[in-house]
């Protein structure tokens, strides 16, 4: 059981943080979010398999779990034979994790530390493996990747491993007329009033929701691949030109983005996707509505570029810009535009 | 803006006047000072508003006040001007007088004095500027005036005057804010059409936002609890307003009451507390209100302002940013207060005390509150499937025991829309709040409740709490707590009311589900037809004034009761 003093001290520390940071960590204090993440089978099973099915990698290793939450990944690692696991989390959920680790008999194998990775002291100078479930919506929104990279640079042995170690963001064009009408068109007439200022805001806020595979009109294209061994926080601000090729004659109302996650260190590489073509995850997909509706013919290409950078004020928020150009022989279908989005 | 007057320009003009270079002018001034000491000590203060000359600043200021009703000290104190601010004020007045414009003391605002170019003296060697430190300190004058008035007629008129002045200034500020906003909209529209500007716009808006939230942060520090800031910030996003607007049960009830009762609104002054996107204010304006004051402390107010402008209702609706307890309204009293203040389990988020404050401060004795009444209901729940689905999960999570995570499920009220057949007994309307008469003390209470179990009961899994909302046209209407929204609305002519209960369409409030912790509770035998009774208590948790504690006691009639407490936060 966590001492009341520990919790109080942790809460005092939390209160000293910036508002946005406080909100970020506090939102993880609630059970609902952990329930949702644990019930996300695609996510949790992928981690479980990549750890438990690779005992040869984890046996007798020192493992660091960055953002351990309820401690599930730490327990997977302990079960896989790790010499010791250190779980770190800023949120007060870690006191629940301590109870959980204890009732499951891992207290001697798992050390849980409440605090910011940048401020705490680990009982080991170096670790052999870093495990972390750091991904946010659109991979990078409210993500903990910067903390993982900090931990990598400070604590990971030279030949240490990271689980997962690769992440890729994909983008495709979708037909989404009905939903766009419901989410965006709604503001044109709200009980008889013109609400267009909120329409502008709605357009600028990427929508986290599930997209059906049949809505996807173009081939998917990768816009960012992160190698966790080598990437730096500077890579989180990126620009990528890309083409989307239409697979059929249709309309395009929005671009959809999702990500794939790879555990390449496994005996048999494990990958899971959060795309519209596969099973539901709690990350769903991220939809960016375009100003125009594009009319595309099968085989045509839309030239696009995506620019992402962490917001200057709150680095967990993202400023995203998407440019698109449909160059067709038919001047009526020509379209070009730039959209600015803010994930906050 | 600061760059608009580069230093070179002002030095150039001063060198023109003094026919020497800048440095020489400074030397000259030093020498002059030396001379002054030797030769003469008298100063000549030229009147701000005409050519009269005085021996000292105080006399000149008194003259301006008496003759032109231009009160330099009052302006200084109202705008909180520091030394440079006063210098700017002097030059602002002199410049206007010089150019033949009439200067009205009460219409000068801080905005007028923003221009740093005003630091440049209009009068060379303006003695008034040199004498500024001789003027009475802020407050001294007020005291003097206060005493004089108090001597004659008591203190009340002075206070009234100040309040009136304050309201006038507030209105002025609002007018300017609106003007600025309209201007901004015009600029934005132009910019929107030009893609090249978008980056700048984004940078600007993020800067502006930074400034705003910076202010709020500071306010949060000043006002103590940070949860206040969070509370208002949480309403700054679109999605929460989208959810509320798309809650048709809620929004249409307000719309129907307002549009069906245009006679009540025609020509009236209406106060909308927590106006959000401005929808209720616009309903009232459309219904013929002469004036609507829309108050909100969230940044969503900026959007409300744009909405109101776009719908051509900015002539009727005035947006005021701030907490209702702290803003000064441009009117003394209003005819109608409209507000959508209801929270989960009705009282979570505790916005009602603000509405009651506004009622006592601003509503005319015969004024109307919209809505007029709310009532709270409780009923027993039996839903085995729900319980197992939600509880059994933690027993085995990928092979691990995570029962530690269950704790909150029994200590927190869950917000769920339960299916009608989960309700396993009759409901009790345990509290009716007549919003015209209730007080903040009425929001903390213990009431009796009872139920007759139905054949839906398998086991007693918990309790469901919801509320009904009534829109009476008459402030004297009395509604009994046991009357449902439907019984009231359907009786006689058509009236507007709605429920957030489990027997009707879902609203964004859903219901409050209080699950009984069966590991602690005594298992009581339940059979159809059986009567249960007990008490329900609403209380405010310590240190979390927007939260809510609900305690329920229950038991078979005549038998020992048991109790459990749930938190909403």
Which descriptors apply to this entry?
heterodimer; A: 344 residues; alpha/beta; six-stranded antiparallel sheet; five-stranded parallel sheet; 10 helices; B: 569 residues; alpha+beta; 19 helices; nucleus (chain B); zinc ion binding (chain B); zinc-finger (chain B); S-adenosyl-L-methionine (chain B); methyltransferase (chain B)
Characterize this entry briefly.
The complex is a heterodimer of chains A (344) and B (569). By secondary structure, chain A is of the alpha/beta class.
Task: Summarize the SSE layout with pairings.
The complex is a heterodimer of chains A (344) and B (569).
Chain A: H1 4-15, H2 19-27, H3 31-39, H4 41-52, H5 55-58, E1 62-66, H6 72-79, E2 84-89, H7 93-103, E3 110-114, E4 127-132, H8 145-155, E5 156-163, E6 166-174, H9 177-183, H10 196-204, E7 207-209, E8 221-227, E9 238-245, E10 250-263, E11 270-273, E12 285-296, E13 301-310, E14 318-326, E15 335-343
Parallel strand pairs in A: 1-2, 1-4, 2-3, 4-5
Antiparallel strand pairs in A: 6-8, 6-10, 7-12, 9-13, 10-11, 10-12, 13-14, 14-15
Helix pairs in contact in A: 4-6
Chain B: H1 7-18, H2 22-39, E1 45-46, E2 53-54, H3 57-68, H4 72-79, H5 83-98, H6 127-130, H7 140-153, H8 156-192, H9 198-223, H10 226-233, H11 238-246, H12 248-260, H13 262-265, E3 269-273, H14 279-286, E4 291-296, H15 300-310, E5 317-321, E6 334-339, H16 352-362, E7 363-370, E8 373-381, H17 384-391, H18 407-411, E9 414-416, E10 428-434, E11 445-452, E12 462-471, H19 485-490, E13 496-499, E14 511-515, E15 531-539, E16 548-556, E17 562-568
Parallel strand pairs in B: 3-4, 3-6, 4-5, 6-7
Antiparallel strand pairs in B: 1-2, 8-10, 8-12, 9-14, 11-15, 12-13, 12-14, 15-16, 16-17
Helix pairs in contact in B: 9-10, 12-14
Question: How many strands, what sense, and barrel or not for the largest sheet of chain A?
Answer: 6 strands, antiparallel
Strand proportion of chain A, as a percent range, falls in 25-35%
Provide mean pLDDT of chain A, rounded: 92
**What quaternary form is this?**
heterodimer
First-last Cα distance of chain B: 46 Å
Q: Element order, helices and strands of chain A?
A: HHHHHEHEHEEHEEHHEEEEEEEEE
Strand content of chain B: 15-25%
Low-confidence stretches of chain B: 1-40, 141-154, 191-225
Share in helix of chain A:
25-40%
Give the number of helices of chain B.
19
Structural class of chain A: alpha/beta
Please provide the count of β strands of chain B.
17
Low-confidence stretches of chain A: 23-28
**Helix count of chain A?**
10
Structural class of chain B: alpha+beta
- Principal-axes geometry of chain A comes out as elongated
């Amino acid at each position: 059981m966590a001492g009341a003093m520990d919790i109080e001290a942790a809460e005092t520390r939390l209160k000293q943080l910036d508002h946005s940071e406080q909100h970020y960590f506090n939102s993880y204090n609630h059970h609902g979010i952990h329930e949702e993440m644990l019930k996300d089978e695609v996510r949790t099973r992928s981690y479980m398999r990549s750890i438990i099915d690779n005992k040869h990698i984890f046996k007798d290793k020192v493992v660091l779990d960055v953002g351990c939450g309820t401690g599930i990944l730490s327990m997977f690692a302990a079960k896989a034979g790790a010499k010791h696991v250190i779980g770190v989390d800023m949120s007060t959920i870690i006191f629940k994790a301590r109870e959980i680790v204890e009732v499951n008999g891992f207290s001697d194998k798992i050390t849980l530390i409440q605090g910011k990775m940048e401020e705490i002291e680990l009982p080991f100078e170096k670790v052999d493996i870093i495990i972390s479930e750091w991904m946010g919506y659109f991979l990078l929104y409210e993500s903990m990747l910067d903390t993982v990279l900090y931990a990598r640079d400070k604590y990971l042995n030279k030949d240490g491993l990271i689980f997962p170690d690769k992440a890729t963001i994909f983008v495709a064009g979708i037909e989404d007329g009905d939903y766009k009408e419901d989410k965006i068109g709604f503001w044109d007439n709200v009980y008889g009033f013109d609400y267009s200022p909120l329409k502008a805001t709605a357009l600028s806020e990427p929508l986290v929701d599930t997209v059906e595979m049949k809505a996807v009109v173009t081939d998917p294209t990768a816009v960012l691949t992160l190698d966790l061994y080598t990437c730096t926080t500077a890579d989180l601000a990126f620009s990528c030109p890309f083409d989307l090729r239409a697979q059929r004659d249709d309309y395009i109302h929005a671009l959809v983005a999702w990500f794939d996650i790879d555990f390449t260190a496994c005996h048999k590489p494990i990958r899971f996707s959060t795309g519209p073509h596969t099973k539901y995850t709690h990350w769903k997909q991220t939809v960016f509505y375009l100003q125009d509706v594009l009319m595309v013919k099968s085989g045509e290409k839309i030239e696009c570029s995506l620019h992402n950078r962490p917001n200057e004020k709150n680095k967990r928020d993202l400023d995203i810009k998407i440019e698109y150009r449909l160059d067709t022989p038919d001047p009526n279908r020509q379209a070009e535009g730039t959209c600015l989005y803010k994930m906050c | 803006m600061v760059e608009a007057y580069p230093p070179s320009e002002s030095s150039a003009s001063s060198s023109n006047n003094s026919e020497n270079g800048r440095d020489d002018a400074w030397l000259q001034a030093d020498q002059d000072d030396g001379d002054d000491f030797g030769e003469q000590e008298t100063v000549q203060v030229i009147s701000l508003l005409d050519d009269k000359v005085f021996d000292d600043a105080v006399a000149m200021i008194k003259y301006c006040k008496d003759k032109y009703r231009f009160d330099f000290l009052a302006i200084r104190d109202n705008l909180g001007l520091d030394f440079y601010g006063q210098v700017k004020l002097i030059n602002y007045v002199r410049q206007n007088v010089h150019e033949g414009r009439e200067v009205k003391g009460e219409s000068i605002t801080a905005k007028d004095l923003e221009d740093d170019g005003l630091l440049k003296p209009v009068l060379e060697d303006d003695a008034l500027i040199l004498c500024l430190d001789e003027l009475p300190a802020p407050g001294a004058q007020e005291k003097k005036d206060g005493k004089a008035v108090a001597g004659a007629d008591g203190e009340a008129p002075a206070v009234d005057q100040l309040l009136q002045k304050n309201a006038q200034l507030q209105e002025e500020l609002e007018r300017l804010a609106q003007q600025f906003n309209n201007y901004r909209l015009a600029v934005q529209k132009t910019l929107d059409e030009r893609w090249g500007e978008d980056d700048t716009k984004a940078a600007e808006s993020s800067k502006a936002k930074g400034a705003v939230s910076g202010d709020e942060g500071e306010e949060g520090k000043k006002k103590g609890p940070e949860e206040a800031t969070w509370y208002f910030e949480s309403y700054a996003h679109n999605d929460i307003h989208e959810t509320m607007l798309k809650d048709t049960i809620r929004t249409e009830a307000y719309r129907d009451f307002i549009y069906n009762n245009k006679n009540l609104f025609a020509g009236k002054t209406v106060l909308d507390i927590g106006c959000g996107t401005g929808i209720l204010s616009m309903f009232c304006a459309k219904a013929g209100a002469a004036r609507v004051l829309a108050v909100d402390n969230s940044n969503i107010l900026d959007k409300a302002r744009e909405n109101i402008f776009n719908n051509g209702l900015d002539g009727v609706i005035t947006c005021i940013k701030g907490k209702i307890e702290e803003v000064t309204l441009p009117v003394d009293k209003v005819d109608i207060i409209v507000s959508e203040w209801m929270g989960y389990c009705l009282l979570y988020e505790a916005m009602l005390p603000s509405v009651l404050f506004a009622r006592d401060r601003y509503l005319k004795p015969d004024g109307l509150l919209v809505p007029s009444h709310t009532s709270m209901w409780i009923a027993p729940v039996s839903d085995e499937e729900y319980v197992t689905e939600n509880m059994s999960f933690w027993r085995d999570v990928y092979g691990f025991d995570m029962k530690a995570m269950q704790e909150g499920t029994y200590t927190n009220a869950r917000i769920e829309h339960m299916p009608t057949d989960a309700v396993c007994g009759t409901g009790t309307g345990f509290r009716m709040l007549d919003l015209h008469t209730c007080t903040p003390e009425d929001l903390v209470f213990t009431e009796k409740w009872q139920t007759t179990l139905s054949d839906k009961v398998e086991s007693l899994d918990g309790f469901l709490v919801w509320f009904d909302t009534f829109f009476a046209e008459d402030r004297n209407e009395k509604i009994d707590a046991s009357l449902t929204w439907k019984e009231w609305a359907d009786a006689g002519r058509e009236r507007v009311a709605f429920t957030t209960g489990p027997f009707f369409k879902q609203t964004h409030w859903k219901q409050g589900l209080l699950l009984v912790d069966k590991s602690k509770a005594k298992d009581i035998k339940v059979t159809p037809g059986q009567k249960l009774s007990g008490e329900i208590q609403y209380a405010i948790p310590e240190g979390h004034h927007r939260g809510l504690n609900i305690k329920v006691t229950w038991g078979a009639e005549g038998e020992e009761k048991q109790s459990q407490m749930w938190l909403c936060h």
